[in-house]
Amino acid sequence: MGVMFENEKAAPSDMQTYQICTVGSSGQQGVIMATVASPSGLQGSMYIGEEVTRKREIRLLKNREAARECRRKKKEYVKCLENRVTVLEKQNKTLIEELKGLKDMYCNKAE
To answer: BZIP domain location, by residue (predicted)?
Structure first.
């Protein structure tokens, strides 16, 4: 049984890949792939880590901005409700006074 090694360079990540081909006496072939990180591959993994961190920070900033906008809208909505309550209270008070006046007029006419 013979063993052959092929050394291939993977350009994007600077990883070395070894393909081991074994040839048996019956003519069957088996292939085993192994990947070994080179020192420059560690820089690539550091870059990936920095990229993940950067994306996480961006996501957190977007979430904070969305939360800030949500709080602002909620505050505006509550302020509108408070204004509406004030207007309706004034209107209710006016209607109660008008009703009292009409009752007094009706009672005075009945007598």
So the answer is: 53-104
- Contact, 1 vs 24, CB < 8 A? yes
CA distance linking residue 10 with residue 18, whole number of Å = 10
Distance separating alpha carbons of residues 74 and 42, to the nearest angstrom: 48
Looking up tokens 């069957």 gives: 28
CB proximity list for 22: less than 8 A, separation 6 or greater: 1, 2, 3, 29, 30, 32
Question: CA-CA distance, 14 to 102, in Å (whole number)?
Answer: 93
Residue range 10-42, pLDDT digits in tens: 444 445 555 555 555 555 555 555 454 555 556
* pLDDT tens, position by position, 65-103: 999 999 999 999 999 999 999 999 999 999 999 999 999
The answer to whether residues 70 and 56 touch, using CB atoms and an 8 Å cutoff, is no
